[in-house]
Amino acid sequence: MGNKQETGRPTVMAPKAMVTSPHYLASQAGVDILRSGGNAVDAAIAIASTLAVVYPHMNSIGGDNFWLIHNSKTKETHGLNASGRAVNKATIKYYKEQGYMKIPARGYLSANTVPGAVHGWGEAHRYAASAMSKTLNWNELFSDAINYAENGFAVTPSQNQWTETNNDKSDQEFRDLGRFEEFSKIFLKQGNLPYNSEELFKQPDLAVSMKEIAKKGAETFYQGNIAGKIVEDAKQKGGMITATDLQNHTSTWVKPITTLYRDYTAYNLPPNTQGFASLSILNVLNHLDLQEVEEGSFTYYHYIIEATKAAFKDRDTWLSDPAFVDIPLDDLLSPKYGKQIAGKIQKNEDIVMNNRLDPKGDTVSFSVVDNEGNAVSVIQSIYHDFGSGIIPSGTGILLQNRGSFFSLDENHVNSLQPGKRTFHTLNPAMLFKGDNPYLVYGTMGGEGQPQTQAALITRVIDYGFSVQEAIEAPRWLYGRTWGAASNSLKVESRIPQHVITKLQKIYPELEKLGNWEDTMGHAGMILIDDKTNMKHGGADPRGDGAAIGY
User: What is the pLDDT of residue 146?
Assistant: First the structure.
């Protein structure tokens, strides 16, 4: 049943453990840690640090991350919010006095939040050391990251493409990152050209920073030698981060939020992430009988797109830092509300979205299940490709521009305030069968994350797709293209033309894209068979990833 289409990649199966990430070298790093006796959290830190080196256009240790961690021994599932808060200097008044009505997307003024990723690694490792068995020492987790930074790795087509895109001299405001001295020194070769695919790429300054973190712990990023370099660079070049901002940073352990889907329970993270939007879509679809609908049909796509619009409408009304805004999550995720929205969709009542959606969100998502059943789902990001474009001298660390998403409108739910966390698209996910994880999954892609998560879940649970089939099936993205005035529906051209024709009648601004679109995100997923305990892993052919088990 449905529209199963494959590249020929198999679903990877292994009896003991499984990892999936959007870069094959990072996946190998994770498996090496597991084989050495580390647990799922150890492997996740090795993957995260390696990705920060080998996938620099999508993430960095100058970004944020979010974690879902399931402890198989205690049957507890914890959320870790390792996103940074706006620095003390970041006020609406500060920007407006300099003539800005919107926070710049690039440059020092876009790097206005504390990077939380490294602190997240430290918190996760402390938890694993106290609550899980077989934890490796902290300094054992960074050997691959240090090696690839110091000795180099092969540039992927993805890195080449995004470096070329961001070396556009005609777009000096946004795409000309070569105007920043450190970016040019590191990411461009002689003649200010991007490194070609397959060329060896080294990052010696980042290797020094990674060695420092491995030796001295996460704290050095916030109050040690690395912190000093970040602060000094900001002082000299008009940056915003101070020593106080870094010293005061903390990650936050949070209770995951949940919703029912068929006979399962979906887990995600609470605000300031858009996790509740991902769950909202499933909450609506739970009241629609998809098994009466052919997968890949017009009705299948229409149901999920309309559920997405409803979820995004609520998200854009409410999503912010819960320390600053009281968000009615119980109401938004109630079965009664989900049934109400499902009824509107069945009656073909159009759900109007007036807000323009943000099309960006370059991110890495990765998952690990170890041989004791501990499971970890993580998303790590710098927001736009290459983040702010700013690299403090001598560090090799790209700083994120996530804080550029804050609004300078004091009445906006996501208005800028010092100490506030911004609306975050990142939301790692799991689906539970009883007390145990059944699916561990996630994707990059900003607005695409909730939509792709819905695609993965419905195709596995409602239609019986294998992990790799679900990842590879044609995808869509409801949002907008940069510079466009309104939202549109973008679809991969593998969707049958007769379905696209029907969708275009409902969504007239439909854009037909290529067969395998990078903009649809790089999804990864692990399924744990509750009968055999076999782990099934998949990685997205739209990216450079791999699922590896043993």
Answer: 98
DSSP per-residue letters across 297-312: SHHHHHHHHHHHHHHH
3-class state of residue 438 by DSSP: strand
Does domain 1-152+202-550 fall under CATH 3.40.1280.10? My reply is no
Annotate 116-172 with three-state secondary structure: CHHHHHHHHHHHHHHHCCCCCCHHHHCHHHHHHHHHCEECCHHHHHHHHHCECCCCC
Q: Where are the domains of the chain?
A: 1-152+202-550
**Residue 327: how many CA atoms within 13 Å on its side-chain side?**
27
Q: Which of 83, 28, 80 is nearest to 53 (CA)?
A: 28
Provide the pLDDT confidence category of residue 353 given band limits of 50, 70 and 90: low
- Taking alpha carbons only, the member of 224, 210, 287, 198 closest to residue 544 is 198
- CA torsion sign, 254 to 67 to 251 to 234? negative
**Amino acid identity at 327:** I
Pairing type for strands 264-268 and 257-261 reads antiparallel
From residue 14, how far is each of 223, 529, 544 by CA, in Å? 42, 11, 21
Q: Which are the catalytic amino acids?
A: 363
The structure's pTM equals: 0.94
Please tell me the distance from the alpha carbon of residue 538 to that of residue 527, in angstroms, as a whole number.
9
* Beta-carbon count within 10 A of 501 CB: 11
Burial class (CB in 10 A: 0-12, 13-18, 19+), 436: middle
Is 386 in contact with 162 (CB distance < 8 Å)? yes
Q: Which residues pair with 257 in a beta bridge?
A: 268
| DSSP 8-state secondary structure symbol assigned to residue 15 | S
pLDDT at 1: 40
Give, in order, the Cα–Cα distances in Å from 101 to each of 98, 104, 109. Answer: 9, 9, 13
Tell me the sheet residues that pair with 64. Answer: 381
| Alpha carbon 63 to chain centroid, angstroms | 11
Assess contact for 447 and 478: CB atoms under 8 A. yes
What is the C-alpha to C-alpha distance for residues 147 and 166, in angstroms, rounded to an integer?
Answer: 26
User: Is residue 4 pLDDT above 90, yes or no?
Assistant: no
Distance CA 294, CA 350 (A): 22
How far is residue 219's CA from residue 224's CA, in Å, rounded to a whole number? 7
